[in-house]
Design a protein that fits this description.
- The complex is a heterodimer.
- By secondary structure, chain A is an alpha+beta fold.
- Chain A is built from 9 helices and 21 strands.
- In chain A, strands 4-5-6-7-8-9-10-11-12-13-14-17-18-19-20-21 form a 16-stranded antiparallel beta sheet, with no helix packed on it. In chain A, strands 1-3-2 form a 3-stranded mixed beta sheet.
- Chain B is mainly alpha-helical.
- Chain B is built from 12 helices and 4 strands, in the order αβαβββαααααααααα.
- The chains are: A alpha+beta, B mainly alpha.
- Chain B: Its main location: mitochondrion.
């Protein structure tokens, strides 16, 4: 299920108040039919004389005055849809249901804006116009709403952008081709090719239905074939062929179901023991629920507000007990405090996650490697909302539990790593970031600003009875941390940082070095 | 390297056991038997999610790993790396190579054919797919059947002809091996070799894992000295460490019902303990229920008599 970074700009068409409306009101007040007939004749054409124009303006001004002072009672009698040759009436009417609930003219105007936005958001119309017309003469105080839509002439659209998908765990660059409204239900079909920052590629076919069997939220489905190449870091490659269904997608809640055939292989045949044991095929059948509450003023440069996200996943939901059984929980809490000078702000963040297998003998079973947590990479912790993922200064999958790879008999050059990072079952990260504008106007205009940061994080293994060796003291003692400063350059596609990091504390075998680093992040 | 391995544990990772075999996979069993013949202490670990991998079985010790798709197989790699070599003085013998060619080409072809085509893959579910969900196992079954037919060069046109050729060669191979073996304990004098491991594995698999209707199985059982050879080696090397001896090989069909009840022997012992626990808990539960009813009746019985008094008063 794609969450595009850009939502369609709301371009509400201001509802035209036809001269008829005002005369309807006046007719109520005056209560004469003869006058109505006269006015109807005049309605057929534009006001011809200057006096008519002035009279109309006076009437409109008096109406607006009345609207400002008191609510003007009106009821929607009928919703008329025009211009839809392919799109089914009920699809459009479902998006403008809010109009029927309006009881006053002021509410109706607001509802018209909302309805217009909803229809634009369906992404299948080139233009939407909502007009308020007078109701039938025998029913005073009513109005008909006329919705004029212009369906997209070319059903094909192409798009390139950066997205965060429900089934992926990182940002990706994606190119997609969309075919809109084939069956007239507002359905959007798309084929896409995505390349992710986590060395993944994905080919997918998706379908989005705005209204599926009367459900209030859109229904999305996606068939995908993805590969993730972790040979360099963990000596395995992951391939998956799956189907993901977006069941609920509202402002705060998201529920998705994913069923996939996953294959973990090691073409290099250099993997360490833990990875070797997990090579093979698996069927993943998992339900994922995300609760997201984001009150920050920006996801690329938050200066005020807070956000909280919790993601829960349960795998093994199938009658067959041989599917992969696991539980995964991630939380992420952010808080931004404005400091008042040079648009400076202090950002704090804490994230944690835990994963565990379930079922018989769950304590001694190993957790699935692709479901474990891996910290490190060239993304910025400030932008990666969703769970423990990155620490400044540490390379991709550059810290945490690790094991020796298979020994190599012939002497090779030392640029290949000798250890596999196998991930952790529990991970915790925290960061503090002070961002500020530069005094130079040129930088300020382009949004280029500076920041000073500190971060810390750690991971540990719990499955395969390793929870017995886990102690809080040892976990705290082995915490990794780094500090640094840098420049942030926001672009239209991503946020780029050029930082100098100094590693304060790291453990043996961690891939981290003090020095200059660049990070690329997309808002999530 | 050898010094390091002495402190490390040897592990053979193979596919899961079934059909009363320590590992039911015909590619993994030779390596297992080889290590048993060499009397090298090792642990057995299982991988049950990768039926279409040619890396299995693999032998590991610390960071040393010997995969089956390298250097001619696990056994060859173990010989080459000096971990265990049963063929050190036999490789120069003239009939070593010819016997080896016979076993690893004709007999292996016959076995591959019998598993995937001859018996239509009846045994493969238990060997390869017992731990995989139905969808995945079906797709992999078709994939592996197709690959096996490709490897054997079987097409729609030559299927019958190829089948006859494979069975004929297997019969000739059994005849030759039976004559060569006679009543000896091993193929070569009185010392085990890797060829004994291959042959024993082949025979045990055919007799125990293939159905009674298998053509290859019938052909093998015609040579009683081969069957005796397998039985002897099995009881001496494979069951020396296991607690319960399995029934004799040649009576496999009649022992099948016994076999199905035998595995229940051990779980039955555990079940009675569980049953005892359950009965104890059930007794406690019933006693608690009875007590609750008694208390209720006594307390409420006293209450109702008070109500009756009230009514009388009213």
């Amino acid at each position: 299920m794609a969450n595009p970074t850009e939502k369609p700009e709301p371009i509400p068409s201001t509802p035209k108040l036809e001269p008829k409306d005002e005369r309807e009101e006046l007719e109520d007040i005056n209560g004469g039919e003869e006058e109505e007939e006269e006015y109807e004749d005049e309605d057929d054409g534009k006001p011809r004389t200057r006096e008519d124009a002035i009279a109309d303006r006076i009437k409109a001004e008096s109406l607006f005055r009345r609207m400002r002072e008191t609510p003007v009672a009106v009821r929607v009698h009928d919703v008329i849809v025009k211009g839809n040759e392919k799109t089914k009436d009920h699809v459009i009417e479902a998006e403008v249901d809010v109009l029927r609930q309006a009881t006053t003219l002021q509410e109706l105007l607001k509802a018209s804006k909302v309805a217009n936005f909803n229809l634009q958001a369906l992404d299948i119309f080139d233009a939407v116009k909502i007009t308020l017309d007078s109701g039938p003469p025998e029913l005073p105080g009513t109005t008909n709403v006329v919705i004029d839509v212009v369906e997209s002439k070319s059903p094909f659209t192409g798009q390139v952008g950066t997205f965060t998908k429900a089934e992926a765990r990182s940002s990706s660059l994606e190119g997609s081709l969309k075919y809109k409204n084939i069956f007239g239900y507002g359905d959007i079909w798309d084929g896409s090719l995505a390349y992710g920052c986590d060395h993944s590629t994905e080919v997918g076919l998706g379908m989005c239905l705005p209204r599926f069997r009367g459900r209030p939220t859109p229904f999305t489905s996606r068939v995908y074939l993805s590969t993730q190449d972790w040979l360099k870091f963990s000596s395995y490659k992951e391939r998956a062929l799956g189907l993901s269904l977006g069941l609920i997608a509202s402002k705060y809640h998201e529920l998705a179901y994913n069923i996939a055939w996953r294959n973990v292989i090691d073409p290099s045949q250099m993997a360490s023991r833990s990875i070797r044991r997990q090579l093979g095929h698996n069927l993943v059948s998992a339900l994922k629920y995300t609760f997201k509450f984001d009150q920050r003023n920006s996801s690329l440069r938050p200066t005020r507000g807070y956000s909280f996200i919790s993601t829960s996943q349960i795998g093994g939901l199938a009658p067959d007990s041989r599917t992969l059984r696991f539980l995964r929980q991630e939380i992420d809490l952010r808080y931004a405090v404005p400091l008042g000078f040079y648009r400076a702000a202090l950002n704090f963040g804490v994230a944690g996650g835990i994963t565990f297998p379930w079922g018989s003998e769950y304590k001694s079973k190993a957790s699935c490697i692709p479901e474990r947590f891996f910290l490190g990479g060239n993304i910025s912790p400030v932008c990666s909302l969703g769970g423990p993922s990155a620490l400044w200064g540490f390379k991709t999958r550059g810290l945490g539990p690790n094991e020796s790879r298979r020994e190599v008999q012939d002497n090779e050059s030392g640029d290949t790593y000798e250890r596999d990072f196998v991930g952790g079952d529990v991970a915790v990260t925290a960061f503090a970031d002070l961002s500020f504008d530069f005094p130079v106007k040129w930088f300020r205009d382009r949004g280029i600003h500076g920041h000073v940061f500190a971060c810390a994080g750690n991971m540990a293994e719990l499955s395969e009875n390793k929870y017995r060796n886990f102690t809080a003291t040892k976990f705290l003692e082995t915490f990794r941390s780094s500090v640094g400063a840098g420049i942030v350059v926001p672009t239209s596609l991503f946020r780029m940082e050029l930082n100098y990091c100094h590693i304060l504390k790291k453990q043996e075998h961690d891939r981290a070095k003090s020095g200059f680093f660049m990070t690329f992040s997309t808002p999530s | 390297m050898e010094g390091d391995q002495e402190t490390e544990v040897y592990t053979l990772v193979a596919r899961k056991p079934s059909f009363d075999l320590p590992t039911a996979c015909p590619n993994c069993l030779p390596a297992y038997i080889y290590l048993k013949l060499a009397q090298l202490p090792f642990e057995l670990a299982f991988n049950s999610t990768f039926p279409d991998s040619d890396e299995l079985p693999y032998f590991e010790s610390g960071t040393y790993v010997a995969y089956n798709n390298e250097d001619g197989g696990v056994i060859e790699k173990l010989k080459k790396d000096g971990i265990v070599n049963l063929d050190s003085q036999l490789q120069s013998l003239p009939d070593y190579l010819s016997l080896k060619a016979l076993i690893v080409s004709w007999l292996e072809e016959a076995l591959t054919y019998e598993i995937w085509v001859g018996t239509e893959g009846i045994s493969t579910t238990k060997i390869y797919y017992s731990d995989l969900p139905w969808v995945i196992s079906k797709v992999l079954f078709y994939k592996q059947t197709y690959l096996a037919k490709n490897r054997l060069g079987i097409t729609k046109e030559n299927a019958e002809q190829r089948e006859k050729q494979i069975y004929k060669r297997a019969s000739e191979a059994y005849e030759a091996l039976s004559t060569r073996l006679g009543e000896q304990k091993f193929l070569f004098e009185d010392r085990p070799s890797s060829l004994d491991a291959f042959l024993l594995s082949h025979m045990l698999f055919i007799i125990q894992a293939l159905p009674v209707t298998s053509v290859l199985r019938c052909k093998l059982l015609e040579h009683s000295n081969l069957v005796r050879y397998a039985e002897k080696l099995k009881s001496e090397f494979l069951e020396a460490s296991s607690s319960s001896p399995s029934p004799p090989l040649h009576s496999f069909p009649s022992s099948f019902p016994r076999k199905s009840s035998k595995p229940k022997g051990k779980p039955k012992v555990e079940k009675t303990e569980e049953e005892k626990k359950f009965k104890k808990r059930a007794r406690f539960f019933l006693a608690a229920q009875f007590l609750a009813v008694v208390v209720y009746v006594s307390v409420m019985g006293g209450g109702s008599s008070e109500e009756l008094e009230y009514e009388d008063e009213d």
